[in-house]
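Example 3.2
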Amino acid sequence: MSKRVNRNVAMKPWPDSCPWPEPVMDGQDDYWEAEDADMLAGDEKVEELLDIKEYMDGLVDEGRLLPDYSLNPDLECEDSDGAYVPEKGLDYWDDGFDIEGWEEDMASHLNLLKLPLPSPVSDIVQIIGYEFVNENLLRQAFTRRAFAVEYGISDCEQLEFFGDSVLNLCVTQEISRQLTEVDADHTDGPFRSVHDEGELSRIREHFICREYLSERAMLLGLDQFILYGSGEEPSEAAREDMMEALIGAVAADSGWNWRVLEDVVDRLVEVQLMRSDEFLKATHFELFNAWHQKHFGQMPEYELTEMTGGRPGKKRYFCTLRYFVPENDIGVQTAQMVGSEEETRSRAREKAAERAYCFVMDHGLWIRLADAGIEPRLEDAINQLQELYQNKYVEAPVYEFHDKETDPLLVDDEWYCSCTCSGVNGYGIEVGKTKAKKKAAFMVLVRLMKSAGICKDEWKKEMWETMDL
């Protein structure tokens, strides 16, 4: 069990500008009254207390109790010892119903669970579509460790753990709903999906990664309620932690009601997979990082800076990318730097990586093929590309095909083939699947030669003529 934080010891005064009210502690005045109990419908303790009150009101209607809940002396005692004993509410019974004691207990319980106003609870409820019984859980989900230490309350870290697990499962379940099926006609393997295990993992990662969760937090306006410690700056990591902790808080408050959790995660994350293949395309960021790691044993360095002086409410980020290129005899320095300014961190990184990728490609430093002995030929392109792979010059080429049924832009017997190999893409459109594949492989071969700095003009000319470019 974690150590319970004690707010009764001397701590910093609660900040005046805090969007969250200070926790209610023993000895403080109650904010909510017993008459506000309808706010907590569904809470076990509240339901128990309301049941007692309803029972006592029934005794008043029967005449057993007077309107002030005292015992009616005119009725004959039904017990052998002369004392009437109610069927429930004995803790509040003393020759009548102790309504004041009941009200004190109800109010005390309400104030342990509901936050004083003003608070951001109603705004958050509107966003996530779930109304908390214990609103202190909600505040805890937004509390950073640094703030918790300063002000003597509990932080969100344990809630993050459970929220992360729920998020993974809910996103995985939604991916399954949208991208898989159980086909009874295939008895050898009825569970079917157009994506393999690795692709499904990449799709899921898109929705649970730090960058996506951070952007969703800002888009929904939830980031404004995070409690940061003194000197702590807003960050992607903090926004990701809050989103996970918020889901964990819903799990704890709802008693792990999965119908509730699925709805909340859907509102927070919005798993939309109409074109799932878009999540599988390698970005320039991924391509360049993998290339740099392979050649230099380390990742390139991305440095992000938040820009100032822009339009109010519109943030921009500048990414400085420092990287290396191979030793060469064309006068290009091995240490390089490029920059890019965009509206989000992810776009700034992607744009910087794209510029670095193009620089290396244009200078023929992407790959070494000088001693491969290959001169691209359309008719032999498929075998030539396979030969480069078998001799470990390039990665395995990957082909994808579409016909008229899957691509409405194609006509008659046309096929579209795309080919990807070592960060280089190509395509071919032709009547016949094999001819389309040859064109795609040929385009990739020529582009690989260009990326190695050994592409002849006649090869490029033939590629343009073949592709009608």
